[in-house]
Amino acid sequence: MNASLSGITRVSAGIILRSGKNDRNENKSSEYLLAQRPSGKVYAGYWEFPGGKVESGETYHDALTRELREELGINVTHAWPWLMREFVYPHARVRLKFFRITAWRGDIVPLEHSGITWTRIGDSPAVSPVLPANGPILRALGLPPVYALTNAEENGIDAELARLETALHNGLRLIQIRDKALPSASRLRFAQAVMQKTRNYADAIVLVNDDEALARQIGAQGLHLSAARLMALDASHNLRASFSWLAASCHTDEELARAAALDLDFALLSPVLPTPSHPGSTGMGWRPFARRVENAPLPVFALGGMAPARLDKACTHGAHGIAMLRGW
Predict the structure, then answer these.
(1) pLDDT digits (tens, 9 = 90+) for 188-231
(2) Is 230 in contact with 213 (CB distance < 8 Å)?
(3) Average pLDDT, whole number, for the chain?
(4) Could you tell me the sign of the dihedral formed by the alpha carbons of 112, 116, 121, 126, in that order?
(5) Which of 42, 43, 55, 289 has the maximal Cβ count within 10 Å?
(6) What is the helix, strand, coil percentage profile of the chain, to 5?
(7) Angle at 44 between CA 43 and CA 47, to 5 degrees
(8) Are the C-beta atoms of 247 and 268 separated by less than 8 Å?
(9) Do residues 38 and 46 make contact, with C-beta atoms less than 8 angstroms apart?
């Protein structure tokens, strides 16, 4: 394939990640690399995720490994496909495929950049300016890799709160208050208790499933939309005025496209594998999942039959992470 297709320049970008130290939360302890564009190039002096154009006959992954070998002197050994974003610069329209890189051979050396810098995920870069196309990626990068869906209906409220407390202590930071079948008074009491337990963790994010009033009442950081509510939501919605995080459950390509069009922060795609919640479904499987999220501009979590041991497999197939009702 050509680097330029119908006026669009295809580009691969690598988000190189390394582990930090002395932090209980694995996601937050990671650092990402930014490289500075050299003089003589468009946007000279700007900081970016390293990478470059996809040449004729190359895949996005091929281009990624070649560019990082040429620019930084490393051989990539583990790269997860992630988001696909389009951006219009004054000089070109680019389609950027981002990869999260967790392993490589060789020492990183700025062979074609003016410099490099490492920044902790969740912190603002200490350097500026950052290339405009890369700015929106930083918020998505800060999302934890595990999304826990509460299951107080099955486990009981007290047992679920105890499970949550243990999980928070072990690093869980992204929670959905689900339990829509609980009586309203019980769900309110449970939701308030969840918020109380997360107050000791400043980086914890709590979303409420499909109940805007409840989410506001307890001061949740986000709202998680059902697929039906997602498809009914108008583009002029003002939910951003109340919530920092908006997400949705998706089961089809149309729903994923709608979540992206409404500029939601992330989505769930399910069911991937058989699950006790849907005993009659075999799930879509990993390859169809990968095809559906290949061009997604927002992070997508795999849901259905997930377990912590499947996190790497999910990310290998383009997921941001995994969502679980059980097993977290």
Answers:
(1) 999 999 999 999 999 999 999 999 999 999 999 999 999 999 99
(2) no
(3) 93
(4) negative
(5) 289
(6) 30, 30, 40
(7) 80
(8) yes
(9) no
* C-beta atoms surrounding 136 within 10 Å: 15
| Per-position DSSP letters for 137-186, written without gaps between them | HHHHHTS-SEEEEP-HHHH-HHHHHHHHHHHHHTT--EEEE--TTS-HHH
Beta bridge partners of 31: 18, 120
Residue 163 CA to residue 325 CA, distance in Å, equals 12
Report field, pTM of the whole predicted structure over 0.85: yes
How far, in whole angstroms, is CA 32 from its chain's centroid? 14
CA separation for the pair 308, 328 (Å, rounded):
7
Please report the DSSP string for 266-320 in residue order: EEEE--SS-BTTBTT-----HHHHHHHHTT-SS-EEEESS--GGGHHHHHHTT-S
Residue with tokens 């992206």, as numbered in its chain: 260
Which among 67, 30, 43, 19 is positioned nearest to 128, based on CA atoms?
Answer: 43
DSSP at 132: G
Beta carbons of 28 and 34 less than 8 angstroms apart:
no
Closest CA to 28 of 282, 285, 203, 220: 203
